[in-house]
Amino acid sequence: MSQVLASLRKQRRYSQLELALRSGVSQRHLSCIETGRARAGRETLAALLDALGASLAERNQALLAAGYAPAHAESALDAPAMAPVRAALAQLLQAQDATPTLVLDGEYNVVMANRGLGRLLALLGPGLPTGPLNLLRATLGEGGLRERCLNGDELCAELWGRAQREAEHLPRLKALLDELRPGLKPWAQQLPSGQPALALRLRAADGQVLSFYSAFTSFGTPLDITLASLKVEHLFPADEATRACLAG
Q: Do 9 and 33 form a contact (C-beta atoms < 8 A)?
């Protein structure tokens, strides 16, 4: 447990003193916990993990390392217990039917999508990945979505940076990034001037440029590891021409 806690602290670039102040645990006691000279009680460990902003998976890892039972389940999305979650996601997708919307798991696999996404893919034309779609593979690799993106370097830099930040808390995502890293190239990271946010600009099969702004929805206060890693991406049209193209 001492190594797990120290690793989490160093990942966040906290000194022992800073973590002690944030958690209400004395620096001396924290030092003893990290060196294995003392064992943290469950309440003390919870206070330290709260101060670190640990993810649910990291909390389970620390609890197990300390000899305690894990606090959070990791249910498959298709498990019976997740039926209310699936129903909520289906309702959200249906309500946003005119807007391309997709549900991503922690490794950026598309696990649900609405008809708006289907319309967008139809506008982009043939040659896109078929079968199960992983957004990182489809966007960061050559071909497919990358070839249709007019600001691919900016988009890839943003997507890669976001995934790297999330991978600090998700071991399976980190493994995927390690797999993709050898084939990557450096990207320009300067955002377009005069834009309030980075827009996704795609060329449709008929040559028209489709522009979108991306926004994310997530569940508040999730208590399941799978649920905590889910995110819903909405692609809102950034101009009237794109909105009219999707409506037609």
A: no
